Structure formats: C-alpha cells, structure tokens
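assembly run, all chains below
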Amino acid sequence: MLTWSTAAPALSAAFVASIVEVVEAFTIVLAVATFRGWRPAAVGTAAGLASLTGGVLLLGPLLDRVPIHLLQLAIGILLLLFGMSWLRKASLRAAGVIPLHDENAIFAAEAAQLGEAAGRQQMRLDWIAGMTAFKAVVLEGLEVVFIVIAVGAGRGLLLPAGLGALAACVLVLAAGAIVHRPLSRVPENTLKFGVGVMLSAFGVFWTGEGLGVDWPGHDLALLVFAALFLGAGLAASALARKPAMEIAL
Amino acid sequence: MTMLKEIIAEVIGMFMGDARLTLAILAIVAGAAALIKLAGVDPLGAGSLLLVGCLGLLIENVHRSARPAAKP
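ok done. output:
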C-alpha cells in the first residue's frame, strides 16, 4: 500500500529536479520559437518527447527483470554519482567559485547560434531550429527520466515520481506561457542544491540497502541522511568561500 | 552522428562531472561492499562508513576544487 510518507520523498525529489531541467530545456525551445516561430520549436519538442517516451517504454519493462537488491545497488551508486556531482557544483556556485547558471545568457547564446546558422544555411533553417529544440528536450529530458527511474524504481514509486516530473513540466510551461521570457528568476542553484541533497540521500540509502544494510527507521532514515548532506553541503560551501577570500585579501 | 555523440557525452557527464569525485565515490562503495561481503563486518557499520565517507568526501572535494579556481 502506497502511503504519503513513502511517496512524498520520491514525488518531491522528481518535482524539484525536473523543474531545473525543464527550465533549461524551455529556455532553448523559447529561443528557437522566438527566432524561427513556434512550428519548428513545437515539432522539435514533440519529437524529443516522443523519443524519450519510446526509450522509457522500451527499457522500462527490463527493470522488472533485474533482482531488486541488484537494482537498488546499481541505482544507488548512480544516484550517489549524480547527486553528489550536483551538490558539489551547487556548493561551488553558492561559494562564488564558479558562476551561476544564467538563463538569459543561454537564451542569447542560442539565438546567436541560430542567427549564425541562418547566415550559412538559409534553406535548412527550420530543420536546424527544430533539431535545436529536439536536442534540448532530449538532453535535459534524459536527466528527468533518470531521476524519475532512480527515485522511483527501487520501491515501486515510479508513479509518484512520474507525477512529480509531470507537475514540474506543467508548472514551467504554464509560467513560460504567461511570461514569454526565459525563466531567469527561478532560484536554480538553490533548487540544484536541494536536489543534490535529496539524490545523495537516496543514493546512500539504496546503495546500503543493495548491500544488505537494514537502515534503522527504514524510510525515515532518508530524512536524516538529507539533513546530514544539507549540513555537509553548507559546510563545504562555507569552506570553499574561505580560500577565495584569503587570496582576495 | 554529432548529436548521438553529444547525447552520449551528456549521459557520461551526468555521472562523471569530476573524475576524482567519481573514483572516490566508487572506492567508498567498493570498500563498504568488501567490508560486508569479504570481512563479514556488520552491514549497518559498513553502511555508516559509507554515509560518513560520502559526507567527508563532499566537503574535501569542494574545498579542494575551490583552491585552484581562487588563484589569480
């Protein structure tokens, strides 16, 4: 029986992570639409979504054939690699060591690239614009698909995780339709920090379970792990700020 | 073909943002697995080492990554 306390971590992790990725894809699709119109943007987006759906439908049933401990271990390790990588980057960005993600700059760069392509290959511009949208949706969507599978597959939580991702898509598209600009005011690094914390916590939890660890408190251990990773991320960020300040002085 | 390469690079980049971090995580997991499967250590003890190792690794990696970037 699926309970809210079991489903909530998977749903919220997929929702927040998907917001970050969908915002990035939306910026590029919007650049395509602004530069060349909504038709190639919509066709490219639809083709990208269809490719991702096809991949999930093709590979999804294979997950049922993998023994649960092996699946938890494999996904746990991938989540640790993915989550800690996000948390590392978010900590470095929060410390000012690497620059923040700038949706307006990405929008301008994509528009400029399309402009250059237009100068070179006027005849194929719709194709190039459509492929740009397709690529953005597939590349960012791959991360969403991984996150949904990773936080959902180990415990039969694919449905709540999928709903979290779907809600994020709806929210970003609705916001995008209203403002008609890159969603640059989304606090992306804060979201990435939070997602890194959650995915790292899931990673330790499932890697441990895959190795036969019976965590005290079962699912509640996830909250403790998340609190510890949050503390470690904040401490790492504070420490990273220190050497930069020392050298500046 | 270029797009396929980009997709493969993206997938690899998802899990290997920093090679040293990736290798260290894999080493910690392998260590915890060896403790449980080969040395017969209590799984919860090895799991705790896994957790503490990952937390320590994060702090060390971020701190180390900040140093060269901070140089003029």
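The radius of gyration of chain A is 20 Å.

Helices of chain A lie at 4-36, 38-63, 68-94, 103-120, 125-152, 158-179, 188-210, 221-248.

not gonna interpret more than that til we talk
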